[in-house]
Design goal:
The protein is α+β, with helices and mostly antiparallel strands. The protein has one domain. Helix content is 22%, strand content 26%. It contains 3 helices and 5 strands; from the N terminus they run H-H-E-E-H-E-E-E. A 3-stranded antiparallel β-sheet has the order 2-1-3, with helices on one face. Strand 1 and strand 2 form a beta hairpin. The longest helix has 12 residues. The radius of gyration is 14 Å and the shape is globular.
Length: 121
């Protein structure tokens, strides 16, 4: 998937990649995958950054219980500013979850693990 803003985002100086700009980018790119993203408060909430490993069929933690700013920075780094590793169809992808989110799997081969609500939801 190519977004209209892809061409300009990677060329932005790092100083312009504020929490607000990265949050807007995350919501733009991941909004249809992470439907709760529009409700995230990146200034106040804590997050886990996870990678779906399509080869092994599991989630792996990249970072847990980090600030919204750190979570967005890691997501931006791992996804090359939201241009790679952002969809299940890309085999591996990275997304954010509220800190404390636990993953469960129903055991069905080929199915993704679904999150269970944390106490903060």
């Amino acid at each position: 998937m190519t977004l209209a803003s892809d061409a300009n985002w990677g060329s932005m100086p790092a100083v312009e990649k504020t929490t607000e700009a990265m949050a807007a980018r995350y919501r733009e790119v991941m909004g249809d995958v992470d439907r709760e993203a529009r409700y995230y408060d990146f200034d106040k909430q804590r997050f886990s950054v996870r990678q779906w490993d399509g080869s092994d069929g599991c989630w792996s933690d990249i970072a847990t219980d980090v600030s919204g700013q750190e979570a967005l920075r890691l997501w931006s780094d791992y996804t090359k500013d939201g241009t790679e590793r952002i969809r299940f169809s890309q085999l591996d992808y990275v997304r954010l979850f509220p800190a404390g989110t636990q993953m469960v799997w129903d055991g069905t081969p080929g199915r993704e693990a679904f999150r269970t609500p944390s106490d903060d939801d």
